[in-house]
Design brief:
The complex is a heterodimer of chains A (about 45) and B (about 775). Chain A is elongated, with a radius of gyration of 18 Å. The termini of chain A are far apart. Chain A is about 70% helix and about 0% strand. Chain A contains 2 helices and no strands. Chain A has about 45 residues and is mainly α. Chain B is α+β, with helices and mostly antiparallel strands and about 775 residues long. Chain B has 27 helices and 28 strands. Chain B has a 7-stranded antiparallel beta sheet with strand order 1-8-7-9-15-10-13, with helices on one face. Chain B has a 7-stranded mixed beta sheet with strand order 16-28-27-26-17-24-25, sandwiched between helices. In chain B, strands 18-23-22-21-20-19 form a 6-stranded antiparallel beta sheet. In chain B, helix 8 crosses helix 13, helix 12 runs antiparallel to helix 14 and helix 13 runs antiparallel to helix 25. The longest helix of chain B is centred in the C-terminal third of the chain and has 35 residues. The N terminus and C terminus of chain B are likely disordered. Classes of the chains: A mainly alpha (about 45), B alpha+beta (about 775). At the A-B interface, helix 1 and helix 2 of A face helix 2, helix 5 and helix 6 of B.
C-alpha cells in the first residue's frame, strides 16, 4: 500500500510532464507548419 | 503598420506595367507590422510554394539579402514570413526576389487577418483538449482500480486524487461549453451546450460531494471523458472553419486596398481607401479595378462592369461617365473624380442591403440546436421525475434520489448528441474541399440539403465572363494575318477572343499599331490603314456599303477593303448544362436572374433549357425575386458572382459563388467553388444530401440508445462503469456512422488532390484580375 504513495505521484508527474511538453511545443509554434516540418528534415543544409 | 506613402511624379509617360508595379509597391509598404526589435514583419502569400525544395530555395535566396533578419517559409499555408530592417531594405526587394525565383507573391495584410487573435483561440481549444485528455486518462486509471475492487481508505484516496485532477480540468477545459451555454440561456434560448454543461457540472459537483464524504461511486471519469470527446468534435469543427477562412482571405488579398490620388500640384500619391474623400482625383491605369465610385473627368477607355452590374460587354468610359467601384479599366488611363467616400459607395450600399437581407436568414436554427430544444426539456423533466419518484420510493432519501437523477443526466448522453452533427459537417467539409469547394459554416450544409429552387446569375456564373467569337467574317489569309497582328497588340477581352479564334499562324508586320480607347486597334500595314474595333469606327475606312448597320458590334477592315463583321458571344461555363439538367431532373426549379440585357439572357436561357428568366435586374430586384419565392415557401439556392449579386447571395436560403467572382460576393456566399466547372453545384448538393441523411441517422442512433439507457438509469442501476462504457460506445458508434460520408461515389472532379484546391483558387483569381 505504501508503494502507492510513491507510484501515483510518479504517474501523475510523468503525465503532467507530457501535458506540459505538449503545451510548450504548441506555444512555441511547432505545429504551425506540419507539411513544412516534414520537408525540412530532408534538407541537409545546416542553418 | 508602417506608413510611408511615397511620391511619384504623375507624368503621362508612366506606362501600364510600371504603374501596376507602383501600386503594388505601395500596397506592400502598407502591409507590414512593426516588431519589438525594430524590424518590420511582412507576410507574403505565395501560392506556388508546393514542396520541400521550394522551402530551401526561397530561404537560401532570401536569407543572405542585406537587411533580412529572419525568413521562414510556411509550406502548409503557402506563406513566407520575413523580418526586415526598414532602414536597409524594403518589402519590394523581397517580393522582387521571390518573383525572380518563380514564386510570385502578394502581401498579406496582418492587420486585417487578426492572425494573432485567431491563433490564440485555436490553441486555447487545443490546450483544453490536451488537458481534458490528460485528466480523463489519469482518472480512468484510478477508476479502473476502484472498479476492480479497491476499498476503504485506498478508494477514498483514489477518489480524492481524481477530484484533484478533475476539478481544475473541468474548469479549464469546460470553459468553451459553459460560456456558450450561459450566452444562450441569457438570451432565453437553449442550445446543445446547455444540457452538456449541466451534465458536466452536476456530475463533477456530486462526485466531489461523494469523494469528500467517503461515498463509493464518483463520476469524475465520466465528466472528463465527456469533455474530451466533445472537445475533439469542437476542435475539428474549428479547424475546418479556420482552413476555409484562410483560403477565402487569401482570395480577397488580391483586391486593391488603396488608390492613386492626384494632388493639386500634379503629384500622384497612394492613399489607403479610408483616407479617400469626395472630390479627390484618382488615376486608374489600364488593368486596374476602380477603387471607389467616381465620374470620369479626363481620359477615354473601355470598362468592364461585369462584376458590378452583370453586363457582359465592356462599355466605353469618357468624360462624364459615372463608374462604380469594382469595375475594371481595360484599355486607357482614366482620371476620375471621387463621388462618394469609400463608405458611401455603391459597394457600401450593397453591403447595407446584404445586412438587411441576412436578417431574414437569422431565423434559421441549426439541426443540433433544434434537437437540443426537444432533447433538453425532455431529459431535464425525466431527471426531475426520477428525483421525485425516488424520493417517494425511498421515503425521502434525497441523496440516493439526487444521485439517480444525475446519473440519468449523464447517461442520456449529450455526448453522442453533441458529436452527431459536427463530425458529419467536418467530414462533409473535407469532401467538399477535395472537390474544390470551400464551406463557410456547417449550417450551410444543412440549408443546401433543403434547397428546392436554384436561381442563377448569368454573367460570370453561368458564363465565364470572357467572350468568345461566335461568328467571324475574316476569312482571307491576308486579312487574318493583319487582324492577328492588331488583336495581339491589345489586352481588351474582345481582342483576346478574336486572337484565340484566329489561332496561331502568320502575323503581318505593321507600323504605328496603337489602341484607341473606346474604339479599337489601328495600324498601318503595307502602306494601308487597318482597323479592328467598333463597327462605326471601322466603317470609316472601309469600302462604302449602303447595307451596313453600323450601330453596334465589332468589325475589321483594311483601308478601302470590305467591312468584315465579328460577332462575340459569351462562353458558357464548363458543366453549366450538366448542372442545370441534373438539378431539373432532381425536381429543383431553375431560373436565371441577370443584370444583363434581355437578348443575351434569352439566348443563354434557351441554350441551357431554362424557361424562367429575368433580365435587367438591379440588386434590389434580385432580392425581391428571392423574397417572392420565399413567400411561396420555396428554399432558394442562389448562385452568383458579382457585386450586384452579393445582396441576393445573402438573401438566399443558401448561396454559392465562384472564386473568380467579386470579394464581396465571395464573402456573402456560403460556399465558394475554386474550380471552373459549375458541376460544383451538383457535387456540393450531393454531399449535403448524404450529410443530412447521416445526421438524421445519428439522431436516430442516439434516440435508440436513450430508449435503452433511460429505463436503466430510472431504475437506479447505473454505476460509473456502466456510464463510462455506455458513453464511449455511443460516441464511437456515432463517429463511425459519420465516417461513412468519406466513402460512396466520388464526385466527378474528386481525383484531384485536395491540396491543389487553394492554389487553383488563387491562380484563377489572378487570371481574372
Amino acid at each position: 500500500m505504501t508503494l502507492l504513495t510513491v507510484l501515483i505521484p510518479i504517474a501523475l508527474f510523468l503525465g503532467l510532464l507530457g501535458l506540459g511538453a505538449f503545451i510548450w511545443s504548441l506555444n512555441s509554434g511547432q505545429y504551425d507548419d506540419l507539411d513544412g516540418a516534414a520537408a525540412r528534415i530532408l534538407d541537409d543544409d545546416e542553418d | 503598420m508602417t506608413c510611408c506613402g511615397g511620391n511619384i511624379a504623375a507624368d503621362g509617360a508612366v506606362g501600364v506595367s510600371a504603374s501596376a508595379d507602383f501600386s503594388r509597391a505601395e500596397e506592400l509598404l502598407h502591409a507590414g507590422r512593426e516588431r519589438n526589435d525594430g524590424t518590420v514583419e511582412y507576410v507574403f502569400s505565395a501560392p506556388d510554394i508546393h514542396c520541400g525544395a521550394c522551402i530551401s530555395s526561397i530561404e537560401r535566396a532570401i536569407r543572405p539579402m542585406h537587411g533580412v533578419a529572419y525568413v521562414r517559409v510556411n509550406l502548409s499555408l503557402r506563406r513566407v514570413t520575413v523580418h526586415l530592417d526598414p532602414a536597409v531594405t524594403g518589402p519590394i526587394e523581397v517580393a522582387g526576389a521571390l518573383a525572380a525565383l518563380g514564386f510570385p507573391a502578394r502581401p498579406v495584410d496582418l492587420g486585417d487577418l487578426d492572425e494573432l487573435e485567431r491563433k490564440r483561440r485555436d490553441s486555447e481549444l487545443l490546450k483544453s483538449l490536451a488537458v481534458a485528455g490528460f485528466a480523463s486518462a489519469n482518472i480512468m486509471l484510478l477508476s479502473v482500480s476502484v472498479w476492480s475492487g479497491a476499498e476503504g481508505a485506498t478508494r477514498d484516496l483514489f477518489h480524492l486524487i481524481s477530484a484533484l485532477i478533475a476539478i481544475p480540468a473541468v474548469f479549464y477545459a469546460g470553459r468553451v461549453f459553459f460560456r456558450s451555454a450561459w450566452g444562450a440561456l441569457r438570451n432565453g434560448r437553449v442550445n446543445m451546450d446547455v444540457p452538456i454543461s449541466l451534465a458536466i457540472s452536476l456530475a463533477t459537483g456530486m462526485s466531489l460531494f461523494e469523494a469528500l464524504t467517503g461515498g463509493d461511486k464518483t463520476y469524475f471519469e465520466a465528466a472528463t471523458m465527456l469533455l474530451f470527446f466533445l472537445l475533439i468534435g469542437r476542435y475539428l469543427d474549428q479547424r475546418m472553419r479556420e482552413r476555409v477562412r484562410t483560403a477565402v482571405v487569401q482570395l480577397s488579398r488580391l483586391s486593391a486596398k488603396g488608390a492613386n490620388v492626384l494632388t493639386a500640384d500634379g503629384e500622384m500619391r497612394y492613399l489607403p481607401l479610408d483616407e479617400i474623400e469626395p472630390g479627390m482625383r484618382v488615376r486608374v491605369f489600364a488593368g486596374e479595378r476602380l477603387p471607389v465610385d467616381g465620374t470620369v473627368r479626363t481620359g477615354l477607355s473601355d470598362v468592364d462592369r461585369s462584376l458590378v452590374t452583370g453586363e457582359s460587354m465592356p462599355v466605353t468610359a469618357q468624360t462624364g461617365t459615372a463608374l462604380e467601384a469594382g469595375a475594371m479599366n481595360l484599355t486607357g488611363v482614366l482620371d476620375i473624380e471621387v463621388n462618394n467616400a469609400a463608405d458611401k459607395s455603391f459597394l457600401a450600399e450593397v453591403r447595407a442591403m446584404m445586412e438587411a437581407a441576412e436578417n431574414g436568414r437569422g431565423a434559421y436554427v441549426r439541426a443540433a440546436d433544434r434537437a437540443a430544444r426537444l432533447y433538453a426539456p425532455f431529459v431535464h423533466s425525466l431527471a426531475a421525475i426520477a428525483f421525485v419518484a425516488w424520493m417517494v420510493i425511498t421515503g425521502g432519501d434525497w441523496h440516493t434520489s439526487l444521485y439517480i437523477a444525475i446519473a440519468l443526466l449523464i447517461i442520456t448522453c449529450p455526448c453522442a448528441l453533441g458529436l452527431a452533427v459536427p463530425v458529419v459537417h467536418v467530414i462533409g467539409a473535407t469532401r467538399l474541399f477535395e472537390n474544390g469547394i470551400l464551406m463557410k459554416d456547417g449550417a450551410a450544409l444543412e440549408r443546401l440539403a433543403e434547397a428546392d429552387e436554384a436561381v442563377f446569375d448569368k454573367t460570370g456564373t453561368l458564363t465565364t465572363g470572357t467572350p468568345t467569337v461566335t461568328d467571324c467574317a475574316i476569312e482571307r489569309p491576308a486579312d487574318i494575318s493583319v487582324a492577328r497582328a492588331l488583336a495581339a497588340s491589345s489586352g481588351h477581352p474582345a481582342s483576346r477572343a478574336i486572337l484565340t479564334h484566329l489561332g496561331t499562324g502568320a502575323t503581318a508586320r505593321g507600323t504605328g499599331i496603337a489602341e484607341r480607347p473606346g474604339l479599337g486597334v489601328e495600324g498601318i500595314f503595307s502602306g494601308r490603314r487597318a482597323r479592328l474595333g467598333r463597327m462605326a469606327w471601322v466603317a470609316e475606312i472601309a469600302e462604302r456599303s449602303d447595307t451596313q448597320d453600323a450601330s453596334g458590334g465589332l468589325a475589321f477592315a483594311i483601308e478601302g477593303g470590305p467591312l468584315l463583321t465579328v460577332t462575340l458571344g459569351e462562353h458558357v461555363r464548363d458543366g453549366a448544362t450538366a448542372a442545370i439538367s441534373a438539378l431539373q431532373n432532381a425536381g429543383i426549379g431553375t431560373r436565371i436572374v441577370s443584370g444583363d440585357a434581355a437578348a443575351q439572357v434569352a439566348r443563354l436561357a434557351g441554350r441551357l433549357g431554362v424557361t424562367e428568366w429575368h433580365a435587367d435586374q438591379s440588386p434590389a430586384d434580385k432580392i425581391a425575386r428571392i423574397e417572392a419565392l420565399r413567400a411561396e415557401g420555396r428554399k432558394v439556392l442562389f448562385v452568383g458572382d458579382g457585386i450586384n449579386d452579393a445582396p441576393a447571395l445573402a438573401a438566399g436560403h443558401v448561396s454559392m459563388a465562384p472564386a473568380s467572382g467579386s470579394d464581396v460576393g465571395r464573402t456573402a456566399a456560403d460556399f465558394v467553388f475554386t474550380r471552373d466547372s459549375l458541376e460544383a453545384v451538383t457535387a456540393a448538393r450531393g454531399i449535403a444530401l448524404r450529410a443530412q441523411s447521416l445526421v438524421k441517422q445519428n439522431f436516430g442512433l442516439t434516440f435508440a440508445y436513450n430508449v435503452i439507457a433511460v429505463p436503466i438509469a430510472m431504475a437506479g442501476l447505473v454505476t460509473p462503469l456502466v456510464a463510462a462504457i455506455a458513453m464511449s460506445a455511443s460516441s464511437i458508434v456515432v463517429v463511425l456512422n459519420s465516417m461513412r460520408l468519406t466513402r460512396g461515389d466520388p464526385a466527378p472532379a474528386a481525383n484531384r488532390p485536395a491540396r491543389s484546391a487553394l492554389a487553383v483558387g488563387t491562380g484563377s483569381m489572378e487570371a481574372a484580375e
